[in-house]
Amino acid sequence: MKFTQAIKMAFSSILSNKMRSFLTMLGVIIGVTAVITLIALGQGSTQRVSSQIESLGTNLIIINITGGRNRSVTQEDLERIKSMPGVSEIAPVLSGGVTVKAGNKNTNTSLEATTPGYQEVRNTHVQLGRFLLQNDLDMRFRVAVIGVDVADELFGRRDVVGEKISINGVEFSIVGILEEKGSSIAGSDDNRVIIPLTTGQRLLRNTEVRTFYLSTQSPDVVNQVVAEIQRFLTRKFNDENSFRVFNQTQLLSTINEATTTLTMMLSGIAGISLLVGGIGIMNIMLVSVTERTREIGIRKAIGAKRRDILIQFLIESAVLSGLGGVLGIMLGFVGVSFLSRILNIPAAISAEVVLLATGFSVGVGVIFGLYPASKAASLNPIDALRYE
Amino acid sequence: MIRLENLSKIYKMGDNKVVALNNISLSINKGEFVAIMGPSGSGKSTLMNIIGCLDVATEGKYYLDGRDITSYNQNQLAEVRNKKFGFVFQGFNLLPKLTALENVELPLIYAGVGAKKRREEAIRTLEMMGLKERIHHRPSELSGGQQQRVAIARALVNHPSVILADEPTGNLDSKSGMEIMQIFKELHSRGNTIILITHDINVARYARRLITIRDGQIVSDEEVEMQ
Ligand SMILES: Nc1ncnc2c1ncn2[C@@H]1O[C@H](COP(=O)(O)OP(=O)(O)OP(=O)(O)O)[C@@H](O)[C@H]1O
Ligand SMILES: [Mg+2]
């Protein structure tokens, strides 16, 4: 018997009992919809988090000094670190929360006091005006570069270079507006104010810098530089617990791992419902084989071989399940576009996922159809014909 | 063409044995029209099922066209059924969800005949049975006599060597029954080999040879005089 003939036969059999076929498929439909939706949302959120982290620069290293008072990094140390092979730039950062005021409006924002190197290290550029200059630090100028959120909040517009603001009561003039970055897991990157390190030390009444951002010449040398710095600081402090050195790649892989695990777990649960769907198909196929015993007998009497019957029922359950898969995929598209809108996660169904889901559902049909089909195929023609 | 030697069929049901066929020897040649009669439970259907390769004997030999098919496996038997035999049953045994045409096409599907040829052959055979107007009807939309004619068309479509009919008129009124027998007579006159089981002596008279079975044994085997 030809394959196309068998497929035609399967379709007409499925269509001859639409309601039952639909109910049988329901398990697979739900399973595939769940798998597709969860994978798409999982991939979407992973992608967003990684692109946010990547936008910070994959060649970024962060040094945090966590030890007590006497654990401070001197200018000399900074020079040492900066001269290490592979290191491109280093920017000390002093940060804190401040209140910024302009006219009668005020807002709370985060302040970072740093050096011109910050621009390169954090991949942060101005869209208007200029960034900090060495001169600003040397002269302790009260100048500020602000994020767009701060500008929007205080002025309701963005072309505010030259305007004055007061930070914790001290007057600063705005010299630059940062490029818009969007929000990240760490909060909005656009809601911040950057001032010269020296000015900041005075403003925040804190001279001890505990955070250093460092960029390497290429992402490839990051691990090597991290190790070098760790060695250097361990020797200096004689204690490896008083500082932390980490990079974006580590953070990225940690977050990727976490979201992947979560996606896998959710997909696993969805996969179980696919399995349950398969069992439902097996159940109905068994019923169908019993109901159609006489049909099987007739077919055998007129020359159907074992294989013909086996293939007929296998294709029927594969088509049943595959059709459920296709409906599930379509429902998945609807579900993803709906959920991604209300959860605000950029999610897209990839071609691989569609292929995988189709293949999987057809596979489920074949596997769970195997037992009923072989039961049908091994029926004795005489007994089958006699069956009432 | 068909030769049975000391054929027996024994059903074991727990401790008791039912001897359905007891040491039957029989030869049927090409072109014969044989009627088998006998009381209920005498083993007629059992014999026919073994001849038609739907069932296998417990003992004895079965030669079909000179070949011993006693040792054939299920697949080989399926092929023999498809190529050599056409079955007509008392209860018609059409597939209810298929049209007359699709029912008649089935043996050709299993024989691997292409779609176009299949359709032509099936339509031709149905026309021969006088069902030209009914080819797209389902069995439930046909009378008993028409259904049996579809079944005969299905039995014939693959040009089998032998047509086996187990009480083909059993479910029909006498008029439709006689129509069906007229068809068998016609087929026989065209050279078909026919083996027919019946309870009705008027039906048996259409045949040329009458075999009577009792308790699984042949008790008489005689020629039937022409009507
Ligand atoms: N599958 C079976 N298991 C056990 N016994 C069986 C089986 N099939 C048939 N028999 C027995 O074999 C004997 C012959 O049965 P068969 O069906 O050949 O009779 P028959 O001559 O066709 O009768 P009828 O005229 O009523 O159709 C009967 O006694 C029947 O009970
Ligand atoms: Mg019988």
Task: Give your account of this protein's structure.
The complex is a heterodimer of chains A (388) and B (227). Chain A is α+β, with helices and mostly antiparallel strands and 388 residues long. Chain A has 2 domains: 3-52 and 253-386, no CATH class; 67-241, no CATH class. Helix content of chain A is 57%, strand content 19%. Chain A is built from 13 helices and 12 strands. Chain A has helices spanning 3-15, 18-55, 75-82, 118-121, 134-138, 148-155, 197-203, 222-237, 248-291, 293-301, 306-343, 351-377, 381-386, and strands at 60-65, 87-102, 105-114, 126-129, 143-146, 164-167, 170-178, 183-184, 187-188, 192-196, 211-216, 243-247. The model of chain A has no long low-confidence stretch (mean pLDDT 87). Chain B has one domain (2-223): Rossmann fold, CATH 3.40.50. Chain B is built from 7 helices and 10 strands. Chain B has a 6-stranded mixed beta sheet with strand order 6-7-8-3-9-10, with helices on both faces. The interface between A and B is medium-sized, with 23 and 26 residues. Bound molecules: adenosine-5'-triphosphate and magnesium ion. Adenosine-5'-triphosphate binds next to strand 1, strand 2 and helix 1 of chain B.
What are its keywords?
heterodimer, A: alpha+beta, 2 domains, two-stranded antiparallel ribbon, B: 227 residues, alpha/beta, 7 helices, 34% helix, binds adenosine-5'-triphosphate, binds magnesium ion
Quote the average pLDDT of chain B: 93
- The fold-level CATH name of chain B is Rossmann fold
| Outline type of chain A | elongated
Q: Hey, roughly how much beta strand do the residues of chain B contain? A: 25-35%
Average per-residue pLDDT of chain A, rounded, comes to 87
